[in-house]
Amino acid sequence: MNTVIKPLASEHFEQSMELSSFAFQYSLTPEQLEERRKTFLRDGQMVLGVMKGNELCAQATLLDLYVYIAGKPFSMGGIAGVSTWPEHRRHGYVAKLLSELLVRMKEKQQAISMLHPFSFAFYRKFGWESFIEYKSYEIGSEQLSAILRGQQRNEQAGTVYRIADWQPLQHIYDQYAKQYNGMLQRSENWWKDRVAKQNAVYSVYEDEQGQLQGYLIYEAVNRQMNIHEFVALSYEAEQGLLRFIAQHDSMVEQVKWKAPVNDQFIFGLDNPRIKHDITPYFMARIVDVAAFIAQYSFTPAPAHETEQYRIKVVDEHAAWNNGIFELCIASDGSATIKQEDQFAQANITISVGALTAWLLNYQTWDTLVRFGKAEGDQLTMKRLQNRINAQTTYLTDFF
Questions:
Q1: Which of 44, 89, 168, 300 could staple 64 via S-S, CB 3.0–4.6 A?
Q2: How far is CA 216 from its chain centroid?
């Protein structure tokens, strides 16, 4: 029997949940299942399924999201819930789903896509590339006490206090998120469904002027403090929140939290030998090169001249990207791009995944060249590198 790829409807909910719970090894209570039913196809969410007659063989969810890049929101296709029944694996169903998702994302004008991979190598074959790492910290009660002693030498003027709900956090988060490439522009439903946690504590830092400058979302259970989000808009707020964390030293034995990969928390410690790891996290892919460049803000240049580049993009899975483009960057950072004749001479050749990592400032041109993901004239690539926005990549969410 032939298979067909089509969007799932509400009548496919049970089949979809059955496959998801099997593939990702979780179970839902009847109450949780009903909550999932309410959000199954909400907020522009689409679930594509590979159907053989009435049987669901494989599926993938496309989320309609926005992500900050250089401080601007980009329409982003978030891919989640990619799953296949064991008896239907190795038939190329996921490859077909990804190809169909690329077409649908382009139609929806989603210039970029992000996903959390089960295998980096697998998704690299389809153009997605690693672009976010995070730093995770783990400290014990003795180190908390040491932080507290150090903080006493430099008292903070602001205050930290608990609040009952998440709404005041949204404005702080939005300011923080714009500082990084990859952070979501969260909707109210996203806060309610994905961020707000039933047993979590919400604490905010307020400065002397009465402005909220940071927050924590955390849980303290079984003498362990898990910080789900640590957000600070200033060094003062960061130190105030650290002092608040350290004040839990009598009730917790361990504190864990995540931070951007360029975070320098340990540099400020008297004893920086604490456990910290760097973990690759999400992947990204430019869906439509022309649409992405039209929105992208390059770094302004002092000269009042337009810089021109001819870039050959290699994209085996999105024909509209596969070719040579002329990129023109104005002195104010705005850019235009147009596809050139196939016989035009390119001075940079790069895969779509490497281009994504480059423009999001996850990797520099020399690293991409070293690993064989880009090639071209060295001076040209260095000149373009100087125009790429220098914000760090980060993401506090998961999907």
A1: 44
A2: 20
